[in-house]
Amino acid sequence: MKSVLLILYRIFVFFYNIILRPRIMSVYVHIKSKIAKTSIIDLNVFVDRKSVIGGYCYIAKGTIITKSIIGNYCSIGPNVKIGLGEHDYNQISTSMRFIGSPYEKLTMKECFVGNDVWIGTNAVILRGVSIGDGAVIGANAVVTKNVPPFAIVVGCPAYVKKYRFDNHKIEQITKSQWWNHSIYEAKKIIKVLEND
To answer: Is 169 helix (H, G, I), strand (E, B) or coil?
Structure first.
């Protein structure tokens, strides 16, 4: 009976998305999640009910997003995992069977992904991590701590390899806040920034 209800729910979500959220192609995106109408979510992406995704984002196949806030203009590659549950290994047992409200306990801290962040294929962002605006997360990286704005991080655990721009350019881009504008306005601002 439970599996029949789940199938009926997935069918409902499918039609809900076709009618109200046509850019969301996955039936695993919770209908209570807050997703901007300009963002595109590919097949087999899971987004829980407590996540927020900003405008003009693209999220590729197989990605899982739990209790996360994602800014505007983010590009998230296939099979990325953001904010999955983390078991408390200091407890006698790590089994979910001994945890009251496992979803709430295992996902206590939110993840924050800034604006214009690129997250490469198979990257894992642990619970409670914040990623700054303009950062790049390399493919297969495991991000265990906060990432500064415009940093490029790689590895397991992820470390800062370098920064995308010098401090002056980072300051100019940050001051422009181009990611808070429509795509048409953002293109104009970016063109000016590129010519400086």
So the answer is: helix
Tell me which of 30, 87, 168, 181 is the catalytic residue.
Answer: 87
Least confident of 20-29, 30-39, 155-164: 20-29
pLDDT of residue 5 exceeding 80: yes
If you count them, how many residues does the chain have?
A: 196
Give per-residue pLDDT as tens, 85-117.
776 677 766 676 766 666 666 667 899 999 999
Peptide bond into 157 cis (omega under 30): yes
The Cβ-side half-sphere exposure at 168, using a 13 Å CA radius, reads 3
Residues 139 and 120 sit within 8 Å (Cβ to Cβ): yes
Q: Provide the token pair at 69.
A: 């806030």
> Residue 150: phi, psi to the nearest 5?
65, 15
Residue 30 annotated in active site: no
Domains, the chain, with CATH or none: 2-164 (2.160.10.10), 167-196 (no CATH)
